[in-house]
Amino acid sequence: MLKTQPRLESSKLMSWLSPLIAIVLTMLVSSMMFLALDINPATAFKVFIIAPLSDSYNLGELMVKTTPLLLCATGLALCYKANIWNIGAEGQLLVGALVGSYFALQAGDDSGYSWLIVTLLAGTLAGLLWAAIPTLLHQLFHTNIILTTIMLNYVGLYLLLWGVHGPLVDPAGFGFPESAVFADSVLLPTLSEQGRASISIVIAILAAIGSGIILYRTLPGFQLRVFGSDQPAARYAGYSSKFIVWSVMLSAGALAGFAGVAEVTGPIGQLIPQVSPGYGYAAIIVAYLGRLNPFGIIFAAFFMGTLYMGSDLAQIELGMPTAITGLFQGILLFFLLACDFLIHYRIVLQPSKPKASTSRSSSEPKQGTA
């Protein structure tokens, strides 16, 4: 009989090696899948991992994919470090894109770049306020943050669809569900003239570095980590649980909102229904792949961005569906959670107890009567 037992002490080395182990196991399982599809695994991994790094254009597209993942994952890591299970980065990103697009459409060609600042602030504030809704419900009525944030993801999605089909639709767009192309004054500057990568990737990296410094080098960061590890101890020490919960939730919402508005004012240049292919959900995997450490999340975000980029290339060169990215993400998350489980628990074989005999042994002498 198999039974799990908590380990007396978890290995710190294995906690950092587990993402690498999960990646290797994911590649092994993916290789079997490629063989079943009559695709050479070496060719497939070359397209998925090597091709996105092959030239300057692909590197630029890699940064485009990485930016929203990095921003959302950084905010989620702060929540998860505080043991607050925010699953709402996707909805916060979409609402940030929607509100930011509304302000961007008010700008004209003669508007100054100050309107870009207004647009970015509006999208960031929209994501922050969207995250404030489940936080307020949790504080007032003790609702489950997981459930409320997931439900608000769908509300945010349908608000965006309403926007691109209704008030924000391009009047000269022949009925297609998209807004007009934004004026140049509200578009983020690009890193090069050839690619679509904008300065938002620089802002995302700086945000991750700043979050890491706050988390590991400041008193509020220490309080956040203590609160996530042992809430009764944090309350006994006088740390404000309300302040910590509000801080991490609003920070995550603001970062996700900025990710959304940076998408529409950056590589996309307009509001479309496909603003996000699931960046907010993939950011959960990125956060755990980076061990909830903002510095590690930078590398994890680039890895996940490589998978997104490789998926697009695989669709073109290998004829594979883009859904393969979701399959990779699911396998990777499964192995990552399995590795983490085995770090904290061990599986032991416990012998089953023999059943007690209910009948008297035939060899036992019977008691007689005097």
Structure report:
This protein is mostly helical. The chain contains 13 helices and two strands, in the order βαααααααααααααβ. The chain starts with a strand and ends in a 21-residue tail after the last strand.
SSE layout:
Layout lengths: L1 E5 L5 H25 L4 H10 L5 H26 L7 H17 L8 H28 L3 H21 L34 H18 L1 H11 L1 H6 L4 H24 L14 H11 L4 H24 L6 H21 E5 L21
Q: What are the defining features of this structure?
A:
single chain, 370 residues, mainly alpha, two-stranded antiparallel ribbon, 13 helices
In short:
This protein has helices spanning 12-36, 41-50, 56-81, 89-105, 114-141, 145-165, 200-217, 219-229, 231-236, 241-264, 279-289, 294-317, 324-344, and strands at residues 2-6, 345-349. It is mainly α.
Secondary structure class reads: mainly alpha
Q: What is the β-strand count?
A: 2
Helix-residue proportion: 55-70%
Please compute the radius of gyration using only Cα atoms: 26 Å
Major sheet: size, sense and barrel closure? 2 strands, antiparallel
Oligomer: single chain
Number of distinct helices: 13
Strand content: under 5%
CA-to-CA gap between the ends? 49 Å
SSE order, one letter for each helix or strand: EHHHHHHHHHHHHHE
Mean pLDDT: 91
Low-confidence spans? none
Q: Output the strand order for the largest sheet.
A: 1-2
Q: Rough shape?
A: globular
